[in-house]
Amino acid sequence: MLKNQEADECGLVAFNKEQLVQEAETAITEARKTIDYNTAEFPIEYFIDKITQQQINDNLNWDKLQQSYFIESLLLGLPVLNLVIDDNDDELKIVDGKQRLYTAINFIQGNLEFQNLKTLSSLNSFSFKDLTLPRQKKFKRISVRAIAVAPNSDLSVWSEDK
Questions:
Q1: E runs forming strands in the chain
Q2: Are 72 and 151 part of one and the same domain?
Q3: Under a CB-based contact definition with an 8 Å cutoff, are residues 107 and 128 in contact?
Q4: Would you say residue 10 has pLDDT above 80?
Q5: What's this model's pTM, rounded to 2 decimal places?
Q6: Domain tally for the chain?
Q7: CA-CA distance, 126 to 73, in Å (whole number)?
């Protein structure tokens, strides 16, 4: 009798596992239905008027060294990670990539002087205004790839605050 009971329990465990796997598959399928987006390239200057200095002050957590290295990467033309944005309301919401975008805008607004750069060490202590006018224009036109989340999407799946 004990063997039959063990066999029944094993069958029950296998059935429960199958049911859990099926429920997980259903959950994935349903969650994917709430995600819709488009990918586009935007020049950094596109975001300047959409982001307030208060947003930058409240959310920029990178120290000056991290910011310097990121701007150096942009100047060198290195690829950077995509932003995730919600541009559907009156206000632009940066879902992911705040530090990268806020650093670029902070630099353009003259609030960052380079420090401890290795590759572009001749720029140490420079700020945006110290760059030549053509270089300033080129910097503002650097393209950043952004994933624009559609209005019907569940933003919680994108959040960097998970």
A1: 37-43, 83-86, 93-96, 143-149
A2: yes
A3: yes
A4: no
A5: 0.74
A6: 2
A7: 15
